[in-house]
Amino acid sequence: MTIYNLGSINLDHFYQLPRLPAPGETVATGGYSTGLGGKGANQSVAAARAGARVLHVGATGEDGDWALQRLESYGVDATNIACVEIPTGHAIINVDAAGENTIVIFPGANRTQSPEAIARALEAASPSDTLLLQNETSHQVEAARLAREAGMRVIYSAAPFDIDAVRAVLPHASLLVMNAVEARQLRDTLGQELSELPVKGVVVTRGGEGAEWISAGSEPVFAPAFAVKPVDTTGAGDCFTGFLAAALDAGRPPAEAMRFAAAAAALQVTRPGTADAMPSRDEVDSFLEQQA
């Protein structure tokens, strides 16, 4: 079983601030660092750290060798990452003393995906495999359609939220993952309850209030959040999604997969960074044993 991830790859620039700046305000940073990021790379690293076989499909600029090396160091197959003339994507991430953040993204190479390259990457896929998608690349619809034609599970992380993108991918998705704000926007725009959407399940993450799996004809599955002191909440949703995908890929039932993912996200927010802050499966298992 393999998780294929059509996902973004960014160089994250982190600025530690006493508070997030108001419009027109300049705030001096107390610290600066860089790291591997992008919702796609974050989810690939999380799934690989969770024990899944992960093949990343994406693109970087000629300045992106470091990203490939970092992905491979975490066990992600980078064979299907193209090198293009546009610079690698990057993000400016401001993090305040409470761990909250604001983010500005330059998409760069992430918007140059090739339908032909995606098709080649998925040629060996089987119904036992999974495709992960987010809204930070191009050609999500083509990838989702090809994956469903191959009988694959398609997990769509609908962020950054864009209603037109969701409408286009939804007919090909198996599982839709959103945060509470995105879920409310989708429900209000479509005029449908989440359980009425044409997917097998909808997972809504609610930060410190936990996460919920909603599906038609079944009682919701709720996974409470674990009490931790957050250092940086950037990438927590990606950590959750990557670990959830890995758990489902391994055949775990929704309730068990959700608890596993919630524990991983709890550990991830206690560390600075995004992809580089993802915990290992052993760390998550140990954390869960302590909770029991």
Domain unit count: 1
Total count of strands: 13
Task: Return residue spans where pLDDT drops below 50 for at least 5 consecutive residues.
Answer: none
- State the major sheet: 9 strands, mixed
Catalytic activity: D-ribose + ATP = D-ribose 5-phosphate + ADP + H(+)
Active site: 238 (proton acceptor)
Protein name: Ribokinase
GO cellular component, one term: cytoplasm
Can you characterise this structure?
Keywords: ATP-binding, Carbohydrate metabolism, Cytoplasm, Kinase, Magnesium, Metal-binding, Nucleotide-binding, Potassium, Transferase. It catalyses: D-ribose + ATP = D-ribose 5-phosphate + ADP + H(+). The protein is an alpha/beta fold. It has a single domain, classed as Ribokinase (UDP-N-acetylmuramoyl-L-alanine:D-glutamate ligase, 3-Layer(aba) Sandwich). Helices cover 33% and strands 25% of the residues. The protein has nine helices and 13 strands. The strands form two sheets. A nine-stranded mixed sheet has the order 5-4-1-8-9-10-11-12-13, with helices on both faces. It has a four-stranded mixed sheet with strand order 3-2-6-7. The longest helix is centred in the last third of the chain and has 15 residues, at 254-268. The protein is globular and about 50 Å long. The mean pLDDT is 95.
